[in-house]
């Protein structure tokens, strides 16, 4: 619609709508920030203000004192990085083969991706819980990684299939004509073209695992093993009476890695990375 | 389809290259070798547990029990049929899924149409619009609890400043709890829907728009005649997925209300989670999972049928 002329009032209306959206999107986040930097007396005030009058870092200090945040972050990092690396390593060949050899396999792969979106996790977690318990993998990050790998596979596969489809088959044909075998072609032609997509997919898988809550809640029992999202809920207390300042501070910290990764991915996301994924 | 990957199969250098389309349909060892690393975990940790879970629904499996687990046939399902609490939570799940998905779609569509225009700050807006997507659901829940907090929250303070009453305990009120969590659900899922729709919009041929405009079509006519037909497949797919995801959601509401007050926000997943991991009723909870899958499958079937029909129409 870029070439079309829009009248002045209509344009003003568009900006107004955009502003309204941005306010709606931003205000809870700004409030989280404001709460995180407020000293206790200001938090107790019955007339809360947007800007802290005496901003403080006390809430952050207190958050680390109250809950094992560093350890939880280390657990989250370990789980998310392992899950992302394994998921991509396993999904890339499958995505590649699926795209190049359509037919039954491709149908099965796409079907599984669709069906997996419909699983209510509870139907999967009960048997997994029983199996992992028998393998003594309950309350271990290793067990959680296993679950995360499988859980992030469908989306990783979906994304990678989109990227693999974008690799022109002609390039591979050219390599084959030049006498390169399949492995050579894969390594020297396909992989470099696929690399940006693989990185983006891995980052997505990282964020999903970093943010995941349900499986971690069920599988991790002791505070030393728990991941950040689970430990965050401990701030809420039994009756939901929370220490607002440290709660906000910890919650804000837990968001930083995902925000960072999404910042890196931003171009690809808005540039239409998901076009392939959504269009199928 | 290219014949090359087949032709360049290792160890077959001397074999004459097959013509396109004549590749043998049988299993290709090299392909299977590449597929196995993904297939194995999928079968062992995803398909396996799913089938195991369905089987559990027909047993009396419980946690920490000394007797052996027995088959009980459809007993769990019969009990479930009479479990009014479960059906109430099922109803809440449907209200929640529809209540989140529909406004979310409309808002996301508006935002996508806006972001598709050449507006100033468009890049900034796109970047910011993604923030909710990047946040852990637990953090989104915590954040909105801070907003909704009856005393220290910004929502009530804003309402007081605008002279709109003395505020409210939104998440604890019997009447307000479900609408309050629905607002959070809309907020949290909007970016993803927006991005999907935006991607769909960018596939709409610009020339069509321009031609329609030259023919004197107004904005609404152009939307009806050009934008929507191109966007429809993406819109249907994302709406079906959103309905499913929302119906099965857990973390957000767990953090916001934990199903309260008085079960008014107890989504089916929260119900099943409590049944399984608080009361240890694995078999019964698995039966709930089966009912949820069945409900969602209907939706998938419907959207697939539509899709197939759409393909035929073309």
Main traits of this protein?
heterodimer, A: 280 residues, mainly alpha, disordered C terminus, B: 314 residues, 14 helices, 0% strand, disordered N terminus, ABC_transporter_permease (chain B), membrane (chain B), Carbohydrate ABC transporter permease (chain B), MetI-like (chain B), MetI-like_sf (chain B)
Q: Largest sheet of chain B at a glance?
A: none
- Overall pLDDT score of chain B: 83
Number of strands of chain B: 0
Give the structural class of chain B: mainly alpha
Radius of gyration of chain A: 23 Å
How would you sum up this structure in a few lines?
Chain A has 280 residues and is mainly α. Chain A has helices at residues 8-36, 40-44, 58-66, 69-100, 104-116, 121-134, 141-166, 169-177, 182-211, 214-219, 228-234, 244-279.
How would you describe the overall organization of this protein?
The complex is a heterodimer of chains A (280) and B (314). Chain A is 77% helix and 0% strand. Chain A is globular and about 75 Å long. Chain A is an all-alpha fold and 280 residues long. In chain A, helix 7 packs across helix 9, helix 7 (141-166) runs parallel beside helix 12 and helix 9 runs antiparallel to helix 12 (244-279). The relative contact order of chain A is 0.13. Mean pLDDT of chain A is 84; it is low at 270-280. Chain B is an all-alpha fold and 314 residues long. Chain B is 68% helix and 0% strand. Chain B is built from 14 helices and no strands. Chain B has helices at 4-7, 29-56, 75-81, 84-115, 122-129, 131-134, 137-148, 154-161, 177-201, 206-214, 219-247, 251-256, 268-277, 282-313. The two termini of chain B are 22 Å apart. The relative contact order of chain B is 0.12. Chain A: Its main location: membrane. Chain A: It is a multi-pass membrane protein.
């Amino acid at each position: 619609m870029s070439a079309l002329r829009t009248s002045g009032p209509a344009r003003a209306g568009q900006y107004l709508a955009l502003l309204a959206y941005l306010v709606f999107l931003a205000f809870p986040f700004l409030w989280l920030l404001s709460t995180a930097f407020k000293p206790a007396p200001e938090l107790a005030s019955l007339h809360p203000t947007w800007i802290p009058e005496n901003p403080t870092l006390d809430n952050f200090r207190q958050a680390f004192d109250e809950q094992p945040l560093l350890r939880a972050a280390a657990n989250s990092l370990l789980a998310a990085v392992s899950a992302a690396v394994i998921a991509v390593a396993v999904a890339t060949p499958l995505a590649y083969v699926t795209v190049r050899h359509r037919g039954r396999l491709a149908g099965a792969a796409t079907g599984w991706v669709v069906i997996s979106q419909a699983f209510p996790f509870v139907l999967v977690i009960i048997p997994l819980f029983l199996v992992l318990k028998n393998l003594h993998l309950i309350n271990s990050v290793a067990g959680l990684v296993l679950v995360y790998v499988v859980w992030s596979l469908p989306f990783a596969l979906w994304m990678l299939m989109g990227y693999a489809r974008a690799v022109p088959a002609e390039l591979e044909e050219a390599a084959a004509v030049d006498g390169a075998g399949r492995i050579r072609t894969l390594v020297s032609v396909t992989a470099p073209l696929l690399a940006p997509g693989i990185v983006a997919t891995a980052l997505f898988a990282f964020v999903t695992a970093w943010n995941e809550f349900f499986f971690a809640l069920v599988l991790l029992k002791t505070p030393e093993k728990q991941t950040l999202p689970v430990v965050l809920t401990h701030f809420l207390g039994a009756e939901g009476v929370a220490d607002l300042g440290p709660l906000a501070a910890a919650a804000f910290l837990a968001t930083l890695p995902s925000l960072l990764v999404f910042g890196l991915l931003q171009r690809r996301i808005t540039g239409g990375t998901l076009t392939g994924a959504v269009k199928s | 389809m290219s014949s090359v990957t087949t032709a360049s199969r290792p160890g077959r250098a001397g074999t004459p290259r097959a013509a396109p389309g004549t590749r043998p349909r049988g299993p290709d060892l090299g392909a299977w070798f590449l597929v196995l690393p993904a297939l194995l975990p999928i079968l062992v940790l995803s398909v396996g547990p799913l089938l195991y879970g369905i089987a559990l629904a027909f047993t009396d499996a419980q946690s920490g029990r000394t007797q052996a687990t027995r088959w009980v046939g459809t007993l769990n399902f019969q009990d479930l049929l009479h479990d009014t609490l479960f059906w109430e939570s099922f109803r809440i799940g449907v209200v929640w899924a529809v209540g989140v998905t529909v406004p979310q779609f409309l808002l996301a569509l508006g935002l996508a149409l806006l972001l598709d225009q050449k507006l100033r700050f468009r890049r900034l807006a796109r970047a910011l619009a993604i923030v909710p997507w990047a946040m852990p659901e637990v953090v989104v829940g915590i954040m909105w609890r801070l907003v909704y907090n009856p005393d220290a929250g910004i929502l009530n303070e804003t309402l007081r400043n605008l002279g709109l009453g003395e505020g409210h305990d939104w998440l604890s009120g019997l009447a307000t709890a479900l609408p309050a969590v629905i607002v959070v659900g809309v907020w949290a899922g909007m970016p993803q829907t927006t991005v999907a729709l935006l991607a769909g919009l960018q596939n709409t041929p610009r020339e069509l728009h321009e031609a329609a405009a030259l023919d004197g079509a107004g904005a609404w006519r152009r939307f009806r005649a050009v934008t929507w037909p191109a966007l429809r497949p993406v819109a249907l797919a994302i709406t079906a997925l959103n309905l499913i995801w929302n119906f099965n959601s857990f973390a957000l509401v767990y953090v916001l209300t934990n199903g309260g007050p008085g079960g008014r926000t107890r989504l089916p997943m929260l119900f099943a989670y409590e049944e399984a991991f608080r009361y240890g009723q694995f078999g019964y909870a698995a039966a709930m999972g089966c009912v949820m899958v069945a409900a969602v499958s209907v939706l998938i079937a419907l959207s697939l049928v539509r899709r197939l029909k759409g393909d035929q129409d073309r």
